[in-house]
Amino acid sequence: xxxxxxxxxxxxxxxxxxxxxxxxxKFNAKRExxxxxxxxxxxxxxxxxxxxxxxxxxxxxIIISLAKSVFALIFYRFYYAPxxxxxxxxxxxxxxxNKHNKITLAKEKDLHGNRLAKIEWNIPxxxxxxxxxxxxxxxYHLENIDGVRVTLNEGVQIKNLEYSKDIDPLYHHxxxxxxxxxxNEGVVNRDLQVWGHLNLYVCSSAxxxxxxxxxxxxxxxxxxxxxxxxxxxxKRKH
Length: 238
Ligand SMILES: Cc1cc2nc3c(=O)[nH]c(=O)nc-3n(C[C@H](O)[C@H](O)[C@H](O)COP(=O)(O)OP(=O)(O)OC[C@H]3O[C@@H](n4cnc5c(N)ncnc54)[C@H](O)[C@@H]3O)c2cc1C
Hints:
Bound molecules: flavin-adenine dinucleotide
Distance between the termini: 46 Å
Strand content: 5-15%
Structural class: alpha+beta
Number of domains: 3
Strand order of the largest sheet: 1-2
Largest sheet: 2 strands, antiparallel
């Protein structure tokens, strides 16, 4: 994550980065292990419950490779990766609310005759600017480490006007019933209660006032526990 000083100086939204190991080897132990075990399972009956020799050799290679990973993780605190592997650097950025982003019902219908959802979603420029500045800072600091080279995607430039093509969504649907301090600024108050309704609550990532830069589920669970406590106390009283 960028430091608070950098965030204030450059006016960045919240961002974070994570490493994603990419093996350029044809042999990827983890992926191979899953598919091989599945194949062995399916073929068990076919081979009269005997595993063919070629599968045993492959299985041994996988076990050795996975054992190396576990060894490196336990003793050196790093994940073993073959020499020519690469690491993807994924940057995740927060989005500030935009009243023009919305979900409405489309005219088109699905197979069951229900109207499809129509999503209008624009990624704010400030998120892109934050991604570019943060990525360049990361590159600078990471390249201070011996042997590390970072190649940023060509599109990672502030002047890239079609930046949304270089951004992938992250499956974290949020907002729509945002939490607010004041009635006219959102849908629910700080207790998840819908403004103006005594017995209506929303407990979901829908109440997030902005999209975070990180995974939402633990926050949703914390909100759910807090609401459950509140409602159980209310039930005991009445
Ligand atoms: C592929 C994927 C990977 C993810 N990975 C992670 C992750 O690793 N970590 C993380 O923190 N988050 C992850 N998320 C995000 C996380 O799943 C969501 O943020 C979270 O589920 C949101 O919870 P919610 O209760 O707000 O909404 P939902 O989980 O979407 O629940 C809404 C519920 O309402 C129901 N519903 C909708 N319309 C109606 C209706 N008209 N009547 C009755 N019921 C209705 C739906 O069936 C659904 O059960 C991931 C999401 C996806 C899609």
